Amino acid sequence: MARRRGRESRNHGCVASAQRRAALVERNLQCLAGVHRNMTPALRTQPAGDAGVDVRPAATSGTFLLGGDLPVHRLGFGAMRLTGNGIWREPNDIPEAIAVLRRALELGVNLIDTADSYGPEVSERLIAEALYPYPAGLVIATKAGLERPGPDQWRPNGRPEHLRAACEGSLRRLKLERIDLYQLHRIDPEVPFADQIGTFKRLREEGKIRHIGLSEVSVADIERARKIVPIVSVQNRYSPTDRQHEKVLDHCEREHMAFLPWYPLGAGAALRRRGPLAKVAARLSATPAQVALAWLLRRSPVMLPIPGTSRVEHLEENVAAALLELSTRDFEEIARAS
Ligand SMILES: NC(=O)c1ccc[n+]([C@@H]2O[C@H](COP(=O)([O-])OP(=O)(O)OC[C@H]3O[C@@H](n4cnc5c(N)ncnc54)[C@H](OP(=O)(O)O)[C@@H]3O)[C@@H](O)[C@H]2O)c1
């Protein structure tokens, strides 16, 4: 069922034959049938199929080696939406938030993105409550460098003492001895860059974090940071309809760094618009969210989308996107429109 995406699929040529296109639509219909007919248990949740291959939907998105040594399935999950309104305090429906996290793992997701500031602290606490003791192979990526003084308010704080305390807090809340991927949430313009990256470097030397990532950065920022310490990932805002960070994505692809697009669904708004996502979705009998995620997975082999949701129903719909294959024509139609 799994097909190769990224470079390979982008080289298929410009026009898919009518026959191949019809076969694709048929295949997609079969793969997504469970989602559209409210038969989501039909999504495979067992790790190994008959041939010993992981056939869970998220595994079908392919595997990326973070930092060259930490395998994750490319379609991950963003845990910011498991908080209250304005990413503030507890969510309205805590059992549903816990169910979302557990269902994500059943569907093969093994990369969860969070941050100390989501809630604050709420998202990390819920992850531990739902999933600890963690199964082997689960990678929890968290972040530091943004404070939350109130709902919808974000304030950079890159002071070394703050970053260090944030790391200790995340280790404690997540019940981890080492954070697999620790990301600098924002570069703080008020603090020397080398002090911020230098703190992450020291945390890594002390064994508190394994790999380091950056968020909302330029190519120049990435290269400045890499002079100090290896950087394995970049998390910038990006979606099929919001592609201002193309240069950063291309840079990550060249340098084999993961690119985690945040707002991969345009925070939900992109799904409600009448546009190419809706058009292609209607053609493929899929949903706009699935088309957006399938487009991202095809855009680059280093792309690790982390769509967020507070609802199991949306989670299942989103993870099933790993089973959706876009033709070159559909891919390009969406690319041209954005
Ligand atoms: N590095 C950064 O600065 C930064 C900033 C923001 C976010 N992030 C990370 O990126 C992750 C993803 O971003 P995000 O969660 O803000 O935005 P997103 O994934 O683009 O969209 C999430 C929104 O879309 C809705 N949604 C999800 N699936 C849907 C579906 N199938 N149909 C209809 N609506 C759907 C969700 O509502 P429901 O809850 O109702 O499903 C939610 O409001 C976050 O969770 C977080 O981990 C990082």
Describe the structure.
- Helix 4 (94-106) runs parallel beside helix 12 (312-319) and helix 10 packs across helix 11 (288-299).
- The chain is 40% helix and 12% strand.
- It has one domain (7-272, 283-337): TIM Barrel.
- The strands form 3 sheets. It has a 7-stranded parallel beta sheet, covered by helices on one side. Strands 1-2 form a two-stranded antiparallel ribbon. A two-stranded antiparallel sheet has the order 6-7.
- It has 338 residues and is of the alpha/beta class.
- The relative contact order is 0.15.
- Residues 78-81, 113, 185, 215-216, 235, 262-268, 271, 289, 306-311, 314, 317-318 line the site of NADP nicotinamide-adenine-dinucleotide phosphate.
Give me the secondary-structure topology.
Elements: H1 7-10, H2 18-36, H3 57-60, E1 63-66, E2 70-73, E3 77-78, H4 94-106, E4 111-113, H5 122-131, E5 139-144, E6 146-147, E7 155-156, H6 160-174, E8 179-184, H7 193-205, E9 209-215, H8 219-226, E10 233-235, H9 246-255, E11 258-259, H10 276-284, H11 288-299, H12 312-319, H13 328-337
Parallel strand pairs: 3-4, 4-5, 5-8, 8-9, 9-10, 10-11
Antiparallel strand pairs: 1-2, 6-7
The chain binds NADP nicotinamide-adenine-dinucleotide phosphate.
